[in-house]
Design goal:
The protein is of the alpha/beta class. It is 37% helix and 16% strand. The chain has 20 helices and 18 strands. It has a six-stranded parallel sheet with strand order 2-1-3-4-6-5, with helices on both faces. Helix 20 links the parallel strand 17 and strand 18. Helix 3 runs parallel beside helix 4 and helix 13 crosses helix 20.
């Protein structure tokens, strides 16, 4: 029966199964050349599968399996992360034997993960495997993204699949907004004096990057993105405002606050501390794949429900004949707002002090790597907020952003999954000394599985962003202190590790780290930084 599930996965284009034993699907997949990648803890495997789906815009689905009981329990956070970020991942937990599966305290993944998946189904009859898997893949390939779970009780693996397996890969269907709604939205955009486009992750899933650029240039509309949508619009474009999260570039706040119409495309407008807040009282057009998003967190005047690519195609067709507006006034205004903001941050980004300023490390990183052949992601907290406003992404999916739920340690698995999906890219994760404490052991996975990523660690020996809210406990008990020599850890695992303490050594170390990855060796560069707590909040 496991062979039937594996064969369906192969027909659906799955090439990698991340996981942790014991789950008998690992052997079944290996037998037909689906590569199993074993991690050190379950959450990392889900993060890797997450990135495989992201980097391919869902054309290849990430898949993860784990054992029943503690394996499934430990995987819960990774599934929740996929759910919060709307990532299609096939989750394949083993379950308790059917005769005891519903007896407490046995953990039922189907029951307990129902609230953090698009669907959760148990295989109870071998003959039903094709139907169950067809439903699973249909949900993965259609509509809003999210994890889909198929639980296989351990005793099911002893059952033979009856007869010949009949299974064809599922279809992918797209839908578009109603023509009348498109017409009304086009008219509102045509008449807007200061339109702003807010692009979300849906632009990536639809691969609607050319249409987004065409609409912005037609309307001379400045473009900002959510963290998930970052890199959907080239951030070196004259109309680019940058990406807004908890940290935000000055042009983003200025143009949103002074907009008369905000056009959200491929976004949910979810209210979160890790996203840009929409100003009150604006006329909002909301184009989303999920009708449940409409009026969820912001009041919208017009709703366009459908695929981001089809929606943009329809709007461009409706606006055909409109003479492209002059970009120059908007571009000049963007530069006028950006210049003093960058000047304000220049002392940190150009800092020659030691310990190193993390903003200087990240500035030198951007200036050293081949940005257009790089996929970068971050971890929660300071790495996210120090990287996102200043990293200029120029090509689609060169930045894997996230933020609705912010689990520490997420970035390492994302970088490894990205490298599996895009082996010719330099794949980087940026994290801090708190995050490495959560998932750092899985750097060994990168070494063992020959996944040569570049890991940038900002180590200030502290939970620095908590210093203000834990001042007394830190003074009395040193509660925010952290210690470790993580470059040595990377070396002990068989990777390339280097500790960097002087500003003149930053770029040479980055070049050595890149060289190590090109030679097939994962690299961890540990930069000893100051306890920097300032972020760009406007």
């Amino acid at each position: 029966m496991g062979e039937a599930i594996a064969e369906i996965m192969r027909r659906e284009g799955i090439e990698v199964l991340t996981g942790y034993p014991v789950n008998h699907l690992i052997e079944s997949c290996a037998a037909i050349d689906i590569r199993p990648v074993m991690v050190r803890q379950e959450r990392i495997g889900l993060h890797m599968a997450d990135a495989i789906s992201r980097v391919t815009s869902g054309r290849q689905i990430g898949a993860f399996c784990m054992q029943h009981g503690p394996g499934a329990e430990n995987a819960y956070g990774g599934v929740a992360q996929c759910y919060g970020e709307s990532i299609p991942v096939l989750v394949l937990p083993m379950g308790y034997a059917r005769r005891i599966s519903q007896i407490k305290p046995n953990f039922s993944s189907t029951v307990q993960m129902a609230g953090i998946t698009k669907s959760a189904e148990t295989v109870s009859l071998a003959a039903e495997v094709p139907n169950i898997m067809r439903r699973a893949f249909s949900r993965l390939r259609n509509g809003r993204g999210g994890p889909v779970l198929v639980e296989v009780p351990t005793d099911m693996f002893a059952e033979e699949f009856p007869g010949e397996l009949v299974y064809e890969p599922v279809l992918t269907a797209r839908y578009a907004p109603a023509p009348d709604d498109v017409k009304r939205a086009a008219e509102l955009l045509r008449s807007a004096k200061r339109p702003v486009i807010y692009a979300g992750t849906g632009v990536h899933w639809a691969k609607a990057w050319p249409q987004l650029k065409a609409l912005a240039e037609l309307l001379a509309a400045p473009v900002t993105t959510s963290l998930g949508g970052k890199s959907s619009f080239p951030e070196d474009h004259p109309l680019a405002l940058g990406s807004g999260g908890l940290a935000i570039p000055a042009p983003v706040r200025h143009f949103l606050d002074h907009a008369d119409v905000i056009f959200g495309i491929g976004c949910s407008f979810t209210e979160t501390n890790f996203g840009v807040a929409m100003p009150k009282g604006k006329r909002i057009i909301h184009a989303t794949l999920d009708p449940d998003h409409l009026n969820k967190d912001v009041r919208v005047e017009l709703g366009l429900v459908g695929d981001a690519g089809l929606t943009l195609d329809a709007l461009l067709a409706e606006l055909q004949g409109l003479e492209a507006r002059d970009h120059a006034p908007v571009a000049d205004e963007i530069r006028a707002i950006r210049a003093p903001w960058l000047a304000k941050w220049a002392p940190k980004r150009d800092c020659d002090d030691a310990p190193l300023n993390p903003y200087r490390v990240l500035r030198d990183l951007w200036n050293t790597v081949d940005v257009d052949n790089t996929i970068i992601t971050h971890d929660a907290g300071s790495p996210r907020d120090q990287l996102s406003p200043f990293w200029i992404s120029r090509t689609p999916l060169s930045y894997l952003g996230w933020g609705k739920t912010t689990q520490l340690g997420y970035g390492l698995g994302l970088a490894m999954g990205a490298k599996l999906a895009a082996p010719d890219k330099l794949c980087i994760n940026v994290w801090g000394d708190a995050a490495i404490g959560f998932t750092g052991m899985d750097f060994e996975t990168a070494v063992r599985e020959r996944i040569p990523i570049l890991s940038i660690l900002l180590n200030n020996f502290s939970m620095a962003i908590e210093l203000k809210i834990m001042a007394l406990s830190t003074e009395k008990y040193r509660t925010t202190d952290i210690s470790g020599n993580y470059a040595a850890m990377a070396q002990a695992f068989g990777g390339y590790g280097e500790r960097v303490e002087r500003p003149e050594d930053i770029v040479p170390a980055i070049l050595r780290g890149i060289a190590a990855t090109k030679a097939g060796q994962p690299a961890l560069l540990e930069f000893i930084t100051s306890k920097e707590t300032q972020v760009s909040r406007l």
